[in-house]
Amino acid sequence: MTYCVGMVLDKGLVMMSDTRTNSGVDNISVFRKMFYWKVPGERIISVMTAGNLATTQAVISQLEERTKAPEDRDNTLLKADTMFQVATEIGKLLRETVKQTQESNGVKGRGRFTASIILAGQIKGMEPRLFLIYPEGNFIEASFDTPFFQIGETKYGRPIILRGYDKTMSFEDAVKLLMVSFDSTLKANLSVGLPLDLLVIERDGFEPTHERRIMHDDHYFQAVSSTWADALRHAFHALPDYSFYAED
Amino acid sequence: MTYCVGMVLDKGLVMMSDTRTNSGVDNISVFRKMFYWKVPGERIISVMTAGNLATTQAVISQLEERTKAPEDRDNTLLKADTMFQVATEIGKLLRETVKQTQESNGVKGRGRFTASIILAGQIKGMEPRLFLIYPEGNFIEASFDTPFFQIGETKYGRPIILRGYDKTMSFEDAVKLLMVSFDSTLKANLSVGLPLDLLVIERDGFEPTHERRIMHDDHYFQAVSSTWADALRHAFHALPDYSFYAED
């Protein structure tokens, strides 16, 4: 399993992903699920992947044209005119990769070998944009009403984002919110695990504003995790008390 | 979908269930998913159901022997010696009902027509007990380490229970905790819906201590729902702030 969240704020884009992959609970590894490419001063494009690891790695490798000799590689994402074109290109690669593996294994319909991708980025002269790309290759874009996307194990960490998100929030608050959301998910699902990857991209920066791998011994994550239990308990006690005898 | 939670506290048992059933989002009805039977002063047995409605209604009808004339009915649950026997009996009925419907429809393996049941109750001279019964008819019992069970759409509402549960808590606090958990779930999944059913059974009471249907206009639920957003935001701001520049 996986947990990744991508968020659009007024200030820019924030992404966080875990790094755990598992094939059964007895076969757990750490793999990066967040990637980015940039042309300094012109564009930055980031993706996070969930789903079949062979599929997502194949997509990333093809994006980087790793089938070619290093000097011949030519990442099409760096030449696309718009983020919409980037999303279309990644969607096409994803669909073809899934389809190819399914066909060569005689798999019909949905299900096996599939993956989803969150795409975030900005190209100079245009807005920062956030997409969710489906295994079928089509995609949706974040909007005012739905300004964040989650992929993988999305449910445990969703209520706090629904309650805490505010598009005017600072990057620091957004990171704090994501830490709480990831902490709730990690506590409930063993197949989502540390370390986490964090990437913050300021609007019109075209560079990672802040990039970090959050390890098991990360002081801030540990502080959030331990303080959140108390803070929640406090919040809980601040609610009105229930009475068996209240008139309603 | 459905959301039901059963909890063991030092003081007794607390159960809450929603009442929404749906066959597609365009076919939504209200059905009770919580039932109980009692012998005053001697036993009280409660179940909550999730899954295929025809299956769960068939199980309840058979428990109550509704195939017989009212005067011939003889609920075996009211004669079982132990809660373990009650769980075994319900498990058997559930397995047989699922199996029968699957066989007469040519369905193989897991999946269709299945249901799960939370069983809670106490028989005089023994402890209050809580079970989770699977469609296969086998079951597990709540313990010190896992003192509550959820069925249906369990994920959204789980983190707050994990953080808030304390076996020494009052019934009122437990109800408050469940209201928050249900509110988070209702906010995230349309197929879980009001009204909610609430049942509190005090240890050695052998009667419902408190029983209530929480309707759409319930003042307390509305207060919890609206206050919780603020309380969470407050809790969130009480967490240490993230800094891009911190040494770690």
UniProtKB/TrEMBL annotation, chains A, B:
Any GO CC annotation of this UniProt entry: proteasome core complex
Organism: Qipengyuania oceanensis
Single GO BP term: proteolysis involved in protein catabolic process
Protein name, UniProt field: Peptidase
Superkingdom per UniProt: Bacteria
SUPFAM superfamilies attached to this UniProt entry: N-terminal nucleophile aminohydrolases (Ntn hydrolases)
Name of a matching Pfam family: Proteasome
Matches recorded under CDD domains: proteasome_beta_bacterial
